[in-house]
Design goal:
380 residues; binds pyridoxal-5'-phosphate; 42% helix; 14% strand; seven-stranded mixed beta sheet; alpha/beta; Aspartate Aminotransferase, domain 1; Aspartate Aminotransferase, domain 2
Length: 380
């Protein structure tokens, strides 16, 4: 990839060193232009409202079809949503629960899915079980297996965790769940856009994400995947259920369709760069090199995944003698680096998101900064 050339499409990268794609991804010029063109049509072209509304619904529908193809989903199985939470609400709220049903989560869920299952527990008397992550994915898999009982109804995991970027063995977990008749709901926020994904092959029942992180689409866009067979059991929250219908029955209200045009532009641009395959190769190469350089700095300790198949563009670490907030604010104030402290896992560290548009010079500055900070605390 010609990173310097690619970076010219992302104006936000000029403002400093941006290492927080796992928080909010950078919108490209193409994304901004598509959104602006959409709103221009709405508010300045003075078309009769019903005409622009219909035109934009059709354009958003084309984006829905595009993302279904992009993620290896059947056309009927994909709905556009506003957020991950929106998808979670449809799934957790649209299934029938019995008191004592069990839901399994990981020890590193983002507050949104964590709170969503706690709320379910409160409303429906569901029991939440937590599987502790381990650097060895085989250990995670056997812990998942041990957590399953005849009462287990759903496994509700992040595909890639938010603090340490741990890529879970999703296909193996889905296979295990299907063998036991257990449903799976995945939070794909940190996964989509990082590597190729085929939801049909993965074997999940439900997969929800937003599109503003690694997919680099606008805030306010998301999707919900519902496997063909699961369409028959998931009841929409606000309309009658059509067991023969498609996933769009879970879409709620009229969204701001101009935002989906921005999402479409991002998918097109990512595809023009070689798609998720090329992105995964670029990110993997850079993140591996960063990990190797960090490993050589005394006092720096990695958090989370250690085996290559579980690692992603998220690189989280601690510096001995400093907590995550201290490291994070030093990187921001002294080197103008946007990143964030980890806040779910302990000890607290810093999360760096390495994206395909991250430059070598930025990573060199990061390594220098971490060397300085570790040195100031008796290491280096
Ligand atoms: C893993 C994960 N899940 C959920 C969310 C929140 O998603 P949304 O705001 O789309 O509901 C985030 C965003 O930070 C996340 O990283």
């Amino acid at each position: 990839m010609n990173v310097e050339q690619i970076r010219t499409h992302y104006p936000g990268l000029q403002a400093g060193i941006y290492l927080n794609t796992g928080g909010v991804g950078q919108p490209s010029r193409q994304v901004q232009a598509a959104i602006e063109a959409g709103y221009h049509k709405l508010y300045h072209d003075h078309m009769p409202p019903i005409d622009w509304y219909v035109a934009m619904v059709q354009e958003a529908e084309a984006v829905r079809q595009k993302i279904a193809v992009f993620l290896g989903a059947g056309d009927d199985e994909m709905a556009l949503t506003l957020s991950t939470a929106d998808g979670y609400a449809s799934v957790l709220g649209g299934l029938r629960w019995q008191t004592g049903d069990e839901v399994v989560i990981t020890s590193e869920e983002h507050p949104m899915p964590y709170d969503a299952v706690q709320g379910l527990a409160q409303r429906e008397g569901v029991v939440v079980k937590v599987v502790d992550l381990d650097p060895d994915p085989d250990v995670v898999l056997s812990r998942v297996e041990q957590a399953l009982t005849p009462r287990t109804r759903m496994i509700c995991f992040s595909h890639v965790t938010t603090d340490t970027g741990y890529r879970l063995p999703a296909q193996a977990i889905c296979t295990l769940a299907r063998q036991r008749g257990i449903l799976t709901l995945w939070d794909g926020c940190q996964a989509v856009g990082q590597f190729p994904l085929n939801l049909n092959d993965m074997g999940c029942d439900f997969y929800a994400a937003n599109c503003y992180k690694w997919l680099l689409g606008p805030i306010g866009t998301g999707f919900l995947y519902v496997r063909q067979e699961a369409l028959q059991i998931l009841k929409p929250l606000l309309r009658p259920h059509d067991p023969q219908g498609n996933a769009s029955q879970y879409k709620m209200g009229n969204p701001s369709n101009a935002l989906y045009l921005g999402l479409g532009a991002s998918l097109d641009f990512i595809t023009s760069l070689g798609g998720p395959q090329a992105i995964a190769a670029e990110v993997g190469r850079k993140a591996d090199a960063l990990r190797a350089r960090f490993a050589a700095i005394s006092g720096v300790q990695f958090l989370g995944p250690q085996r290559p198949e579980t690692q992603t563009g998220v690189v989280s670490f601690t510096i001995a003698g400093m907590d995550g907030d201290q490291v994070s604010s030093a990187l921001k104030t002294r080197w103008n680096m946007t990143q964030r402290a980890t806040y779910i896992t302990r000890p607290s560290g810093v999360r760096i998101s390495v994206a395909f548009y991250t430059s070598q010079a930025e990573l060199d500055t990061l390594v220098k900064a971490v060397t300085v900070l570790a040195g100031q605390h008796g290491h280096g």
